[in-house]
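Troubleshooting: if your tokenizer reports a length mismatch, compare your output against this known-good record of 358 residues.
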Amino acid sequence: MALTRTRGRRTAVAVAATGVAVVTVVAGCSDAGSGPSAPSSPASPTAVAAEPGVAPALATPPAGRVVRVGNEPEGLVVDADGNAVVGVRRPDALVLFDAATGTVRKTVPTQGAPRHLALAGPNGPVLAGLEQTNEVVEFLTTDGTIGSRVGNVGETPHDVIRTADGTSVVTNEHGGGVIFLRDGKVVKSLPAGPPQPGGVAPVGDYAVVADVQGNGVWVYDAARTQQVAQRRIGDRLTHVVATDRSMVALADTDGDAVLIERITPQIEDVAAIPVAGKPYGLAYDQKRRRLYVAGSADNRLTVIDLADPTAPKVIGHLPTARQPNSVAVDPKSGSVLVTGSAAGADSAIEIIPPDQLP
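Known-good structure output:
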């Protein structure tokens, strides 16, 4: 058994005779169970932020089938009925397509394109932050129309989710902190906190936010519109996804790892999983308890068994389309969809059916 270090923790990596890696936390941080803490010293506005890797040309054909739905697809969700939505660029649009076949049903032009998309419920609507126009829109998967639009939502709304109480929480990437929306209106802004917030995920009434400048994780109680916890973990985080009612997985893109944390709302270490290739996009299959991690620098999808979150197992890797920045699971079929976010001829959606997954 070899010991590896992630900032603030030690992890044990055990490789069984089968070659399956089992990663567990040996010792957590001393502050994991403390009360709400003051934010870490913010990075300077010119601090380097985590970015996806630059993927090389494909050396291996992608798994599954590859379809084209638009240029530079990024931000991807699939609802309970198998309706998929992705953002594309130049020209900017939201594209509604069939998750099973890749058939485009509708393309809706937008001013700006989202980096992240999220479902407000199993059948939507889809929440999208349009960074160039500082708007948040709700996109309906039933008919491919924009159902509502909220303007003046911070400075570059990067990601937006909806918590269990019905509050939408927006990460204000270039303004710092988060913004709370209810009934189509901004009800509060908390500029203090992450200087450059990236991904956000809902855990009940809590919103868990990753800071891309390396300041760790912030937790907000959306019902009370206030910060309740903060910790510096990992190197530089980008994406975060909920894995059950109390836990999240975070992509430590600059640390080549995925971190599993319990939200109580304090932030408690559960496990750290080494993942090479600048891990970026994340998706979780609740039914099968599988975590999918897109390697933005190596055109590879890592599949992790989270049946026991304290002992996650890397069970396989699959080749992807070029520049896999986003990944989503079709809850209806179990298929996994990956964006090939490279420009031009390499722009693609990869659809991997269940029988080709580990």
